[in-house]
Write a structure and sequence with these properties.
The complex is a heterodimer of chains A (231) and B (358).
Chain A: H1 2-27, H2 40-60, H3 67-82, H4 93-96, H5 103-110, H6 123-132, H7 135-138, E1 142-150, E2 159-166, E3 175-183, E4 194-201, E5 204-206, E6 209-211, E7 213-220
Parallel strand pairs in A: 3-7
Antiparallel strand pairs in A: 1-2, 1-4, 2-3, 4-7, 5-6
Helix pairs in contact in A: 1-2, 1-3, 5-6
Chain B: H1 2-33, H2 42-79, H3 82-88, H4 93-102, H5 111-123, H6 128-137, H7 143-153, H8 156-178, H9 183-186, H10 189-192, H11 220-252, H12 255-264, H13 270-285, H14 292-299, H15 305-317, H16 320-326, H17 332-357
The chains are: A alpha+beta (231), B mainly alpha (358).
Amino acid sequence: MQRQVLERWLSIAVMFGLGAMIIFKWQTNRLNLYIHPRYTSLLVATAIVLLLAALGMALTKAPAIPKRMLALLTIPVAFALLVPARPLGANLVSGKALNANSSDNLLARWKTNLSDDSKSWTLLEWTTAVRQSDLAVLRDKQAAFEGFVYRTPDLPADEVLVGRYVVTCCTADGTALSLRVKASNGADFANDQWVRVEGTFVPVEINGSVVPQIAGTLVSIEMPSSPYLYP
Amino acid sequence: MAVVSVNAQSKTQRKWFLFFAPIIGIIGLWLASGWLVPSNLAPLTNKLQGLVTTFQGIFIEALPFLSAGVIVSVLIGEFVKPQHLASFVPQNAFGASMFGSLLGLLFPVCECGAIPTSRRLLRKGAPAPMGIAFALAAPVVNPIVLISTSIAFGDVRWALARVGFTIVIALTIGLIIGAGIKRESILTPLSLTADDDHDHSHCDHDHGTCDHTHDQPKGRLAGLIAHGSTEFFEMAQYLVIGSLLAATMQTFIPQSALLSLNDSSIGFFAPLVGIVVLMLVAVLLSVCSTVDAFLALSFLGLFHPGAVMAFLVFGPMIDIKSTLMLTSTFRRSAVVAMVVLAALFAIIAGLISYVVLV
């Protein structure tokens, strides 16, 4: 009898935990590490339903849930409790980077019109501009955008890639964009550090091909409240 | 004798799995938490944290739709009587299958919601072709998806073509698998349990035993909560496994590897390659059908419209999590047949779209 009571309360705790997890992530502004902000209200409503269900289970002597199901549903709650919440970052770029050969059309679908003021461009707009126009036209345009630092092994010490993910629905569809930045203080920044790039667009020639690059400085910033870009 | 030894063997395997799964889980969790992890394992910690973010993305996004599906299912369980169902569902296979593939218009649920609803309808005595057609079609043939597809593509024809293909495919598969066959040979024991009396669906049906007794919940609301919470956990467990698999694959198999397959294809088979690649992407991403139109849009231009149509038609029917969920309702052989047939028909739908839409 004792065991049944324990299992019943464990079931209630897991149901409650799922609802509380969403509410907690929403309150600490972390829900947008996982999903497009347009689903936020839907999720809060769901969390309330789950919490009410947990309350209902507690009040009505609902039966215990089989152990295997409980164990599996503990996984998301355990993740929320034990694994630091991190946005997609340098760790997954290799898996989610935009494929150079097929990116043009993808970008064309995401964003088409660019404002004249290049200082207002995000990384998404910069990527679009670089793919759409002649690099010579963009030369010397002012840049001021945010992203996280990451590197590939072939980069010199004073150069980094500044990247950001574009998310359409949830992190499952995140695609990484990046621009090469040459900055005198580039070596000071660890991977995944969020930075603001300030500089000008100066394409460089590497191994016979012209590569888009920003020359300027990096300023360390806090992670933006919405770490992803939404097309 | 042979049967016994096979059973014994699978039982030992199961035992080993149950022993090792939690250990692997705990080690993985420890590595992902980054707590006292040696620095030479830091890259792995990074990868695992990315995996967790992707997992939570899929899981959290699907949760509202799963809950909605469970609520619909529980309401049907409470308010629809088997005799009601019998009075307006056509009893011939074609009519039942047709009815099933259109029923989603009344119950706006995605794949996470369609499968519990389908099982509930089957337990209420719905004909098998109807259950199959509903499980496959409802994720697309419903007002929410119709609207979101129209909005995403800015063109109602895409939405209509998507729904049209889905209805035809679900109808056909419902007939092929469900018509003229004993319910027992395609449905799991639980889907066969008549939903009249107090049910024991919360008992682990895989083991076939119910190792505890409990006070029967009193009152209508209490019954709703008991059934709802049980069904929620039962479906959500497949969501967890599916999201874990999808997130693991996404972390370790670069998406660009799949997409570059498309780039390299040339000649006569090019349309086919695009279609198959996007269908694999659909399975891998396991994104909910109510939101996948926005995602599909971003593939348009990258792939020909036929491939995008195959993605839109196949993804909601079959992906990692929905396939796992289907096994809660249909026997494994029936699920395999559904996957193979759906893939085949989605390819055909893609090729038709390729010819018509290019």
